[in-house]
Amino acid sequence: MKGRALVTGATGFVGAHVARALLQSGRDVRAMARGASDMRALEGLECETVVADLRDPDSVERAVAGCDEVFHVAADYRLWAPDAAPMYAANVDGTRNIIAASMRARVSRIVYTSTVGALGIGADGVGREDTPVSLSEMIGPYKRSKFLAEKAALEAARAGAPVVIVNPSTPIGPLDYKPTPTGRIIVDFLNRRMPAYIDTGLNLVCVEDVARGHLLAAERGRAGEKYILGGENLTLKQMLARLGKIAGLPAPKIRAPWFAAYGFALAGEAVARTITHRAPRASLVEVRMARKKMFFDSGKARAELGYASAPVDEGLARAINFFREIGAAPAAA
Question: Which of 41, 66, 230, 249 is least buried, going by the fewest C-beta atoms within 10 A?
Answer without folding.
Answer: 66
